[in-house]
Structure formats: structure tokens, C-alpha cells
Amino acid sequence: MNGHVSVLLPESLALLNIHDGGTYVDLTLGRGGTSSEILKKIPNGRLVCFDLDEEAIEKSTSRLKAIGSNFTIVHSNFSNYPEELKKLGISQVDGLTADLGVSSPQFDEADRGFSYKEEAPLDMRMDVRQTLSAYDVVNTYSLHDLTRIFREYGEDKDAYAVSKAIIKKRESSPIKTTTELAELIKESKPISSRLKKGHPAKQIFQAIRIEVNGELDNLKKALDAIPSVIAPKGRVAIISFHSLEDRLVKDKFKELTVVEGNRHEMYDLPSELEEAPFINLTKKPIEAGLEEVENNHRSASAKLRGIERKGENP
To answer: For 9-105+217-309, CATH number?
Structure first.
């Protein structure tokens, strides 16, 4: 697959309930699949997109220009969106969306170093301007820190064994390529782990990628800022691809849509009870159907969740 196929696109657009004249934010521009569809629906509105990948920005710009000129692309981490929106004179938005998966071109272009299947220098930087790379993580992190990120971010039960193998290998020479690391991971795992479905290196590579790009910290920051930018009746639609991301999204959405009771509230008047600021639009996450999974295997793990801010449009 050479092009990026937007996952759960019709479902995301439906959740956003887009109306012309509104202001919308796509936190993960990628190759412009979602942004282009939003732009088609708002000829009199405004779209702001975020991405760290210069190549993605370059390719998406021409795609969006073919639709309209009422968009702005910001070359910044999506966690900075409140500050960046203020710079653009935007205080509230009618919709915000994010597709948290690494885009297909980043996986498919071997030289980016995201894939354990292709020979490439250990890189994994979504933003090539940053200094920390996968090479630095693999070759400089301590046994303790490697084990921690492999357990926390990769949820890999063989985290300690893999970390020990990495430390031992780099004592003689640095680990330089994706395939060298993938083979080392495979060899360091017990036979029972190697026989499981999927590549033995998948979870470790995920953990390194998350560490290199600060993905979970940035997602937490982005989620925390939602109440400060979403207008009344505004909506948020977020697609996650692994349990760590989905847990953060699920917990934040619950926090925004449910007021935890207390043992005294039975004595409170209805007017005195605190009300949650958002409504949950997806009691259970929306997942890809069989046809979409067959056409795009990366959609198999996708989970889409949405919320709406209470209140009336001004």
C-alpha cells in the first residue's frame, strides 16, 4: 500500500456533524484524506490542520488547494493547538478530529525507520527537526529505562529480556538498522513468544516510536485542552490504534461527560448539581467493518470515539 487510506472516514465525518461556516481542526493532517473531505463541506468555513512531517505537509497542501483556499496548515506538534489557534485569532472551534495512527507512507517509506520489515537506519522521528531518534533510544538508554518503555509503551512481557540483549549487543558495536534490531528482538524472546501471531518485534518498535515522538504525553496535553477550545454544540472525533491511546481517550471523554456522584448529592437541589460539560456520542467505540478491514488491514485495530459540548450555538 503506497498511499494512505483514511480509516473510518465516513464515520468520523458523521460524528463531526460538519456545517458550512464552521471552524474545524484536523490535528493529524497526514496525506490530507480527512482534511480534504472536511474542506469540501465548508466552502464558507475555516480549516486548520497540524502535522510534524514536512513531506506530508507538502503533499497535502496541493491536494487541499485543489478544493479551496480557506485552510491553514501549521507545522507543529498537535499538542500545541490551543496556542497556535490563538495566534490565528481563533478562540473556539466547531469540530476537532485526530487520526492517531502513523500514516501509511511513514511505514511504507523504508528510510523513515518505522518498520521492522524494511532495512533502514534507526530513526522513527515524525519531525526530522528533533534530535532524539530511535538510534539514541536503543544505543544510549539504560537497562532500567529500556525495560520501562518496553513494558509501558509496548506492553511487552519480554521487556527485560529484550533490554538485556540490546545492552549486551551494543557493548561490542552500536545497533544501527531496523532489521538488525528486529532480528535481535526475535532472538532474545522465548519460543512461546515467537510462535504468537504477529512479528515478535512489533510491540518493541511501537514502544520506541512512542518514546521518540513523546506520543502519549502529547496526546494527554491535547486531550486536556479540549474544553478550552470547543464551542457549544462543537464535537470531537478521535481515532486510536492501540490500547494505550484508546485508554487515554476513553478516560478523558468519561471525565468530560460523567460527573462522579458523592454520598451527599441526594440532598442537593437539581439546580445545585454539577453538570458534565460534554455528551458522549459513542457509548462503545466505532470499529471498522469487515469490508474496510479487508481493504485496509491497518483499520483492524482502529477505535473511533466522539463527544459533543453541551449548550446552544451563540
So the answer is: 3.40.50.150
Secondary structure (DSSP) of 136-166: HHHHHS-HHHHHHHHHHTT--TTHHHHHHHH
pTM of the model: 0.89
Give the C-alpha separation, 92 to 247, whole Å: 26
- The per-type count for the chain, helices as H runs and strands as E runs, is 15, 7
- Collapsing DSSP to helix, strand or coil, 217 comes out as helix
pLDDT less than 70: residues of the chain: 1-4, 103-111, 113, 261-273, 313-314
Kindly state the cell numbers that stand for 4.
494512505
HSE value, Cβ hemisphere, 13 Å, CA-based, for 210: 26
Contact present, 23 and 48 (Cβ < 8 Å): yes
CATH tag for 110-215 (out of 3.90.1150.10, 3.10.129.10, 1.10.1040.10, 1.10.150.170) = 1.10.150.170
Report residue 52: phi and psi, to 5°.
Answer: -95, -20
Q: What is the pLDDT of residues 278-299, one digit of tens each?
A: 999 999 999 999 999 999 888 9
| Cell numbers linked to 305 | 470515539
* Identity of the residue numbered 273: L
CATH 3.40.50.150 residue spans of the chain = 9-105+217-309
